[in-house]
Each structure stands twice: as C-alpha cells, then as structure tokens.
Design a protein that fits this description.
The complex is a heterodimer of chains A (122) and B (164). The longest helix of chain A is centred in the C-terminal third of the chain and has 40 residues. Chain A has 122 residues and is an all-alpha fold. In chain B, 51% of the residues lie in helices and 0% in strands. In chain B, helix 2 packs across helix 4 and helix 5 runs antiparallel to helix 6. The radius of gyration of chain B is 26 Å and the shape is elongated. The chains are: A mainly alpha (122), B mainly alpha (164). Chains A and B meet through helix 3, helix 4 and helix 5 of A and helix 3, helix 4 and helix 5 of B. Chain B: This is LOB domain-containing protein 21-like isoform X1. Chain B: Belongs to the LOB domain-containing protein family. Chain B: It comes from Camelina sativa (False flax). Chain B: Pfam families: LOB.
Chain lengths: 122, 164
C-alpha cells in the first residue's frame, strides 16, 4: 500500500490513486476530518459533490461540509441549523433594540429642539 | 406461503424513490409521506438514505421530525449553494448581526449625547457612561464607524460564534 495514502483512502482501506479526488483536501495527518464527513455524508456523496464543482472551489466546499458534519455530530437533531435559528433570534432581538433606541434618540432630539426654541424667546 | 412482511397500502416517498417495499416499520414513512418525494430526493442526494436512516435511529422518536426538518433544510441550502451550503447563510447572518451591533452602538452614543451627560461629543470617549455602553460592544467593533476594519475578519470564525 502507498504509505502516502490520503486520509480518505486510508479510512476506506483502498489504494490512493494519483488523481484521487479526496487527496488534496484530506491529508493523512488528519484522519478525524474524513471520518466525520464520511459519517454524515458518505464518501460517495462527497465525491460526487466535489466532482460537480470547479477545482478552485473544492477546498472551500470541503471545509464547509466538514463544519456542517461536525455540527451534525455534535447536535444530531438540528446540526448547523441550530446556529442559524440562534442567529436569527438574536438578529430579531437586536433589530427590536435598535428600533427602540432610535425612537428614544428621536424623542431626545425633539426635546432638545423644543428647549432650544424656548431659550430663543427668553 | 413464504413469510414476508405485509405490503404497506402506500409507499412513503423514500421507498418510492428507492423502489422498495415500504413496510409498517419503515423508519422514513412517518416523516416522508408519498407527497414528499422531492424533499426526500434532496435529502438523499446530499446525505444518502442509509446515513439518514442511521441518524434517525440515533435520535429519540419524538425528535425525529425536527431532525428530518433540519436535514431537509440543510440539503436544500447545500443544493442551492454547493460550495458553502449553510455556512454561507451563517456568514451572512453573522455579518448582519455585526452591522446591527454597529448601528446600535451609534444609536446609543447619540442617545448618550442627547441625554445631557456631556455637552461635547468629543468628551464622550472618556465618559464612564459611554464605557458602560461600550462594555456591551467590543471597542474593536466601533472601529467600523469609520470603515477602517473589515467585517471579513469575523466571517467563518465559526468555532466561537460571537453571539452565543
């Protein structure tokens, strides 16, 4: 066996060809990365997904798939969708807070304007 | 007569797509009705039916519908954005949150200026009242007021979402 097999081929216990689609993104020193992605998506699906992408975008795709897979392992029910829900809730709260604060600024500006006007006539 | 499992009256979407007999104990049937063919097709394309089956088997039954919903969402987003998937959505939301934090800091600063604590905005930088507000927003974020700090530094730092 080629001692320089990528992590994917090591995991799958197969020969790592020179044009292995996984090799650029799954170095042999990080076996957990492929194990996680394989557990959620499966090697076949990941291979198909990567084949459908231009070369220059595959590294980003692998990183995003790895992150989503890790989220799913950590939270089997919601995966990374849990993070999306949390952010959406926090954004809603921040928007409400911003609207409230901007309204308070408007009121304060009106009061300052009224005070300045009454000072003029004194 | 050879023993065999009774044929279900209507196959679930999963068994229809996989062209197999849908049994009463089919793990997919409660969550992928026969009308959900497209949804299952997307989930199958991204995750694979056997992986979905394993995932569903690992969660309590009462949480399986939520699991299917989140898997369907992830699959949908991944198919629309094959490179970034849900991470693209998370990055956009994080950017939106940072913009809102910036706007909130500006609004609070203006409110402080109008509250009469200090008559000169330039003195606000050292006021304890502003410091109390700034505790809510890291000072480095306020650098965005003059556009000098890129939001990009915050993107994809998903190891520690800033808002959790």
């Amino acid at each position: 066996m080629n001692p320089k097999r990528c992590a994917a081929c090591k995991y799958l216990r197969r020969r790592c060809p020179k044009d292995c689609i996984f090799a650029p993104y799954f170095p042999p020193n990080d076996p957990a990365k492929f194990a996680c992605i394989h557990r959620i998506y499966g090697a076949g699906n990941v291979s198909k997904m990567l084949q459908q992408l231009p070369d220059q975008t595959r590294a980003e795709a692998v990183e995003s798939l790895c992150f989503e897979a890790k989220c799913r392992v950590d939270d089997p029910v919601y995966g990374c969708v849990g993070i999306i829900h949390l952010l959406q809730t926090q954004i809603q709260n921040a928007q409400n807070e911003l609207a409230k604060t901007q309204a308070e600024v408007a009121v304060a500006q009106t009061k300052v304007g009224q005070t300045q006007n009454s000072d003029q006539f004194m | 007569m050879r023993g065999h499992e009774p044929r279900s009256s209507s196959s679930c979407a999963a068994c229809k797509l996989l062209k197999r007999r849908c049994t009463p104990t089919c793990i997919f049937a409660p969550y992928f009705r026969s009308s959900d063919l497209i949804t299952f097709a997307k989930v199958h394309k991204v995750f694979g039916a056997s992986n979905v089956s394993k995932l569903l088997g690992e969660v309590p039954e009462e949480q399986r519908q939520e699991t299917v919903n989140s898997l369907a969402y992830e699959a949908e987003v991944r198919l629309k954005d094959p490179v970034y998937g849900c991470i693209g959505a998370i990055a956009s939301l994080q950017k939106k949150m940072l913009e809102l934090q910036h706007d909130l800091a500006v609004a609070r600063t203006r409110l402080l200026a109008h509250s009469g604590v200090s008559n000169h905005v330039s003195q606000l930088d050292n006021s304890p009242e502003l410091a109390a507000f700034l505790d809510l927003v890291p000072y480095s974020d306020l650098m965005l007021l003059d556009g000098s700090t890129s939001l990009d530094a915050y993107l994809y730092d998903l190891g520690q979402p800033p808002f959790v």
